Amino acid sequence: MEPDPSMSPPRGDIEARVLGDGTEDLKDDSSDSGGGPRSHVVLVAGLPRLPTPHPASLKGSSPASASPQRSGGGPERLPLLSRESTSVDFWWPSQRRGHRYAAWAVSTAFAVCALLAVAVLLAALPLAARIHASHRRERQRAPPSMMPSPQLGAARWGIAGLGRIGHDFAVALTAHGGDLRAVAAGSLPRTEERAAAFAADFSKNEMRQPRAYGSYEALAADSEVDVVYVAVTNQLHRDVAMLFVRAGKHVLVEKPTAVTAQDAVAMLAEARRHRRLFVTNFWNMAFPAVEWASEKLAARDVGPVVHVRGDMAFQAVYDLEDRFLNPRLGGGATLDMGCYLIQSFLHFATLQRITRAQADSLPTKGPSDAWYARHVEDLARPFEAQIDDNQTLRTLSDLGVRVVATGEVNAHRDALASLDAAKGERPVDVEAAFVVDFASARGVFGASFQRDSPFSLEVLGAHGSVALAAPANCPASARMTVLRDANAPNASKTPPAPCCGQPTVETDEADFPLPPFPAAFAPGNYPDGMGFAYMIHEVETCVADFDTAGCRELPLVPHWIQLATQQILDDVLRQVHAVAGA
Q1: What pLDDT, in 10s, does the model give residues 18-74?
Q2: Residues forming a β-bridge with 254
Q3: What is the DSSP string of 233-296?
Q4: What angle do CA 470, 474, 480 make, to 5 degrees?
Q5: Contact of 542 with 525, CB cutoff 8 Å
Q6: Which of 256, 365, 443, 469 is 20 to 30 A away from residue 218, measured at CA?
Q7: Taking the CA atoms of the chain, what radius of gyration do you get in angstroms?
Q8: pTM of the full predicted structure?
């Protein structure tokens, strides 16, 4: 049957039909006679077919030409494509066989190229692995190590100040077998009642109930107490600590040492005069994670320490009666958390300094160690001299320390109205940012009562870093990253590429998880409160060696660092125009 003329495409259009061999035959109906030349296109199998436009949108097409059905029930007519409406280069029938060979050749070439690419990739994998291993050596993560259950009990303890922190300290002490003999409250109303209630809490689980006193003087007179933990508010640190030192007790006083450097130097001098151990409770120094980080830094795996950065802050509840915001109680963000940052900086900045005795036995490592010239005694001696030399404080510049600080004080109307100007009271700091420069290292820190914080601390060496896990004042893990040393003797003198990144050579990490807070006392008031046992263990060890080995100060927190921390705190507070304490 002849096709319906109304279904014929306009002159110049190409009709596509499916041939039996799977190709598509496009018949050119431009010839008037059925025996005229025909043009064909072969679509190579495997190549994507062009999307088919709607017939009505094609140039030269008509609504009639869009009908999908040929008259007489013939094969379905495929959509029409105008030669002018596409940029496809058609392969014409005279060359159909040759183009089939060409299509086969193209497909074969693609397959060969793909196989070659796979072969090259497989051959390159071992080389890539060796290159990667030479730039990055990932040590196996150190296995978790539970806290040393130092079976405490080598000393008999008393606690002065029965607030939040005193409670958590007592829990950690008794949970590890420590000997809590007595507790005392003395700075708030109902002292005897509060002391008795506190002591009763620690008669659980067959523990000996400590004696309860309503005054610090009564605790000082207890002959069965060797060491007293002083957990009173900051403004009382000096008087209460010196009370116990004069009574012959060893003292662990909560941080900060005092509210002023003048108070701190007097406390240290009094402890030396009475030959008693005096330690500020920078408990962070006793955590195994800090010990691990210190060992890595002392080994100089990351090169000389040149920079320390840290931030500790939280949004304090606005309560002028609480110790955080009360100037009469020695409040303020810098004294509360900035002291951790400064003390940590002094420790890590001087950690790699050797003693003169060590210097005599170590070979010279080259000109890069010129900064090593000042030994640890040179750094500590000026601060030590202040303790023994009539407690006369020198300026920080004379001691080789530079401090730049800024911040904000609590300027709320009610806070200002509560101050006694006649006594020189000033609002506490609620935000402080400061830089400390000492011992060829710099520290950049922030402390605040106005915002959240990662509670982070990171020590950066010339070619690597060591970071303490948050919260950095009581970390349960630490991580070291060692980078390629661009100035190593055998290193390429080509600058690192990219310029702002040195290739990682090695990473190492160690975990020291703490046991949970005992259910009988949960929840604790502070994170990782069981970590107090670390510092308790260090103090008990030193007390046991006090007479035999002459342990006059805790090596983790030497006297000179306690005093230097307080002097820097003074300068930070002076610069942010906040005076803590009455």
Answers
A1: 444 444 444 444 444 444 444 444 444 443 444 444 444 444 444 444 444 444 444
A2: 281
A3: -GGGHHHHHHHHHHTT-EEEEESSS-SSHHHHHHHHHHHHHTT--EEEE-GGGGSHHHHHHHHH
A4: 55
A5: no
A6: 256
A7: 40
A8: 0.73
Structure token pair of residue 206: 């067959």
CA angle 44, 46, 49 (to 5 degrees): 75
Q: Given the DSSP bridges, would you call strands 477-483 and 464-468 parallel, antiparallel or unpaired?
A: antiparallel
79: exposed, middle or buried (Cβ count in 10 Å: 0-12, 13-18, 19+)? middle
Q: Is the peptide bond before 256 cis (omega within 30 degrees of 0)?
A: yes
Full 3-state SS string of 3-43 = CCHHHCCCCCEEEEEECCCCCEEEEECCCCCCCCCCCCCCC
Cβ neighbours of 575 (radius 10 Å): 16
DSSP state, residue 182 = E
DSSP assignment of 71-94 equals: GGG-SPPPPPEEGGG-------GG
DSSP characters over 319-362: -TTSTTT-GGGT--HIIIIIHHHHHHHHHHHHTTPPPHHHHHHS
Which two tokens mark 205?
């689980």
Q: How far is CA 524 from CA 128, 167, 169, 170, 515, in A?
A: 51, 8, 10, 11, 13
Asked if residues 562 and 568 have their Cβ atoms less than 8 Å apart, the reply is: no
> For residue 10, which of 99, 84, 116, 100 has the smallest C-alpha distance?
84
Contact 179, 155 (CB under 8 A): yes
106-150 pLDDT tens trace: 677 777 777 777 666 655 555 444 444 444 444 444 444 544 555
Cis preceding-peptide flag for 523 (omega within 30 of 0): yes
Q: Return the structure tokens found at 58.
A: 């094609």
Nearest to 426 by CA among 448, 442, 410: 410
Measured CA to CA, the distance from residue 255 to residue 560 in angstroms comes to 15
Q: Which residues of the chain have pLDDT under 50?
A: 2-3, 6-94, 127-144, 146-147, 356, 362-374, 579-582
